[in-house]
Each structure stands twice: as C-alpha cells, then as structure tokens.
Amino acid sequence: MLLAWLERRTGQPVSKLFDIIAGTSTGGILALGLTRPNEAGQPAFSADEMVALYEREGSRIFSSNFWHKLRSLGAIGDQKYPSKGVDEVLQRYFGQTRLSEALTSVVVPSYEIERRMPFFFKSESARTQSTHDFPMWQVARATSAAPTYFEPARIDTSHAGDYWALIDGGVFANNPAACALVEARTQFPDAKDYVVCSLGTGVLKRRIAYEDARHWGLARWAKPVLDIVLDSVSETVDYQLRQLLPPGSYYRFQTSLQRGSEKLDETDARHIRGLRLLGEQMVRENAPALERLAGALTPLNNRSVVPAAVPVDAGPG
C-alpha cells in the first residue's frame, strides 16, 4: 500500500522509480510482480493490483483438504499446507515470464537446504547467464517456501538430474535491505550516494518475562526463540544502514501489529481489512517522510536508488 501511494504521487510505476528492488518471501513476490512486463513491455501489475492479490488469493494460497490436515497434525507431521494452491496462484500471475525479463534489477533471496548456502536470484545474472534464468513463478515459490507452511521448492538446474532445494529466504535475509545496498554498490560502483527505501510488514513485540523463561526447555523456547532471531536480524540490518548511510538517504517504514493480526495464514476478510487499515494508517503517519522520498525519486538525477521490500517472509517482523 505504501508503494501504491508512491505510484499515485509520482505518476510512475515502481519499476521506474527504483534501480534495484530486493524482496524476501512476500517481498520477493511483490518485487517480481511489480517488475513483470506485459506484452507491451509495461508493468503487468500496479502496486494496487498486488495488494489485491493478497485480498483475493489468500484463501487459495493457504488452502488444505481434510486428509492433508489429518496428516499434518497442525504442521507437526507434515507441512501445514499442500503446495498446489500457492503453485497455481503464482503460475497464474507470472505465467511463463522469466527472471531475465524483469523491468528493473531484482534481487530475491532464498536458501538452499541440501548445499546449505544462501541462494540469490538476480535478474542481472539471469540476463547474462542462462543457467541463472528461471521462470518468475518458480523464483516466487522458492523465496516464499516458509518452513512448516509449505514444502521446499525444487527447481531443476541445467545439469540433467540436478536441482536446487530451496526454502524461504527469511531464514537468513528477513530484511534484505543490506543485500540490496551491496548489490547497488556492485552495479553502480561510481555512484556518489544511494537512497534506500526499506519496507517492513509489521512487528508484534511480545514481552518474555524472566520468571517464565528461566524454567523453559526446548519445547517452550522453540517458537519464541525463532521470533527473536527473525526480529533481531531485521532490526540489526536497520541499525547498520542507519549508521552507514547519511541523513536523508535511508527511509525505513514499519508498523506495529495488534495481537492476533500477525498470523501468516489468516485469510479472514475482517483480518485482511484490518491489515489494509494498518497500511492506510502507516501512510498517514509517515506523510512527511514519504513526500521527501517521492521528491528524491523524481527524477532520479543519476542517483542509485535501492528499495528493499522487507516482509517477514513467514510472519511479521
């Protein structure tokens, strides 16, 4: 919704406002959707239309049948949702468009679980190396393969019988703003300054009382420690960029979630409307900073501008 405001304010699509767009999980889906070309070579989707994707398709993405629910036991015995729903939605939105066709430079993190290494999908690499070029829908599927929610994505390589086994990039790049800045410095080494716009998807701070935690074991710590790791990684990137970039070059937009609104797979209409209202509030409360950002983006004046679409790939943060 913040990007939709920028598009209306500047009269330009996101793909023309920024030189590089980085996104993890939900942010990766947005980055790809906003840079996918139509037959005329223009953006296939506006930011408003990407908002509509979540309003219309959430129940399809997070859908399951009785037998899968029985087998998964609430994500204890198997992934919480079969991949059929999310695969069909992504294929319908991205078709056969490939990463190399992105309208501007895109960086989408994922993680390779068999080779145990970070994996970056980059449109710049895809344009020059066919082995790095993949269908956009597969890239979107890989970066959003949240553990316990969906099974890992398997993407065939150019070598017969070989493949990449990929999960949600949020396990290491929950906030990809630093990845975006590094990519900008690599692509534009002679640029004298960089403007970074980092977008969060909401954070819910749960107080952990000492008297409770001091007696916790593995079972009680499992969920809280994951939330702590994801939040702290994101906040650390925010801190680092505030120290690295001069005033006026770094914009971070984040909001607080109410308890109950942080569930990744909640698709109830009232919940979705609540998130929309939070988005509207976020725009209102950040109006002065958004106006300054819009001024910095139009025109670019040969400045390298790096947005980092920053979701909590498998939840808020």
Descriptive labels:
single chain; 317 residues; alpha/beta; 8-stranded mixed beta sheet; 8 strands; disordered C terminus
Describe, in plain words, how this protein is organized in 3D.
By secondary structure, this protein is α/β, with parallel strands linked by helices. Strands 1, 2, 3, 4, 5, 6, 7 and 8 form an 8-stranded mixed β-sheet that branches. A hairpin with a 6-residue loop joins strand 4 and strand 5. The radius of gyration is 19 Å and the shape is globular. The protein starts with a helix and ends in an 8-residue tail after the last strand. The C terminus is likely disordered.
Describe the structure in brief.
The chain is α/β, with parallel strands linked by helices and 317 residues long. It has helices spanning 2-10, 14-17, 26-35, 47-61, 66-72, 84-94, 123-128, 136-143, 170-173, 177-187, 210-213, 218-244, 269-285, 287-297; strands at 20-23, 105-112, 117-122, 153-156, 163-168, 194-199, 250-253, 304-309.
